[in-house]
Description:
Layout: H1 2-18, E1 46-47, H2 56-61, H3 64-76, H4 78-99, E2 105-117, E3 120-134, H5 140-206, H6 212-246, H7 251-257, E4 271-272, H8 279-282, H9 284-305, E5 310-321, E6 333-342, H10 348-416, H11 422-457, H12 475-485
Parallel strand pairs: 1-4
Antiparallel strand pairs: 2-3, 3-5, 5-6
Amino acid sequence: MQRHTASAITLAGMLLLLGACAVGPDYTEPEADVQPEWIDTGNTLVNSTAALDPRWWETAFADPVLNELTNDALQQNLTLRSAGLRVLQSQQQLAIAVGNQYPQQQQIGALAERQQKSGYRFNDYNVDFNLAWELDFWGRFSRQVETAAAELDASVANYDDAMVSLVAQAAQSYILLRTFQDRLQIAHNNIKAQRESLRIAQAKLDAGDVSELDVDQATSLLHNTLATVPGLEISLQQTKNALALLLGESPQEFNQLAGTMGAIPTTTPAVTLGVPQDLIRQRPDVRAAERQLAAQSARIGFAVTELYPHFSIGGSIGSSAMDSDDLFSNDGEAWSFFGGFQWNVLNYGRLQSNVRLQDAVFQQLLVDYRFTVLQAQVDVENAIVAYLKSYEQVKAYRLAATASQKAVDIATAQYQDGLVDFNTVIGTLNALVAQQDVLASTRGEVATNLVQVYKALGGGWQIRDNHDPVDLLPASMKETMKQRTGAWEGVLE
């Protein structure tokens, strides 16, 4: 028995040593074409030397309400929680892949039986342990671990991408909320001014100084401005509803909290970009594309292992006796050991095609990765130019709005003194409404374009401390999962 056991151990050791060789390509991170500088690097508002601030919304706007909304969204957003659960699923897939490297079939059995046959009664006791193990020849199972590990990294990157999008959406929705509030206030202020113009025109008509045309023109302008209010109110409420969704709340609950007025967040003129090479590590979608590429490389290796024989070893040990006291005696001992292999020699065409298939998928993902890197650079450049140019626009619109207000004041005074006709007043009032509204809209665009810059740079996910999916879920959800199956104890802590 000792000689057989020693031979079995020797054979198993040789097979394990052979199994240390993994077939298929070994993954290397691909190079990506990234430009050394941004197009607008020479602009004084662009800072390419400092690193991106992870909490950019706090430093860029310094708005306490925006900070509170963003923190609430990070804690309560349901899409982000779903992404966290996908990370947890990937973690368990990796654990399964790791477990596949060890004996796949293990069974412990025990039987106690009492029988009567031909007038005799007798007992039968059996205890046995069976084991079967497909060895990791050619790195078959290690490639599965490699795939699962890369997919876990990709799921973490996808979670980070969801964080970046969430923070940006919360900031942009909040800016839109304040912009619509500002535009509504402008509309109401102009309605007040136009009512006063109508009163003056009516007074002059009653005095016989002007014709009814002036009153009709004033009335038309007033009601046109009044008609803009419902449209702005629709947009305002829909923006509130969008924010409620981001915060994981019902529109009714959030509407009570969003009734306060506030100014459009002001921005710091300069924007910190870092260098373009930072996109490779900052943009979560770039990291996710690279990790998917790594996972696919390991799938090629797994496909290659199908071309080779699969070796397995196993055995069983047990004991049987008619008396329980004799169950573990030498006379009742029974054992067996086996080694074997399987080889799909008649399926080489299909298996080779699968290798080529996996390699073609890898090449496609490589192209997709390079496109993602290129798209990231385009996104940043588009966001930079939009921010810089809208910043220039707002300065010009502010001067225009100031001039329009002066024109209204002068025209109104001159109309009262009979120096100009009412067409002049109407023209200045129309211009004032348009200039003030476009100024408010552009101020909002400056802020939202700055948010887009930081989103394109991949800013925001860095506030997450680590890659542990346990920390990506709220405590209440983890407790519910523990109670449902009892399988999460020691895992979700």
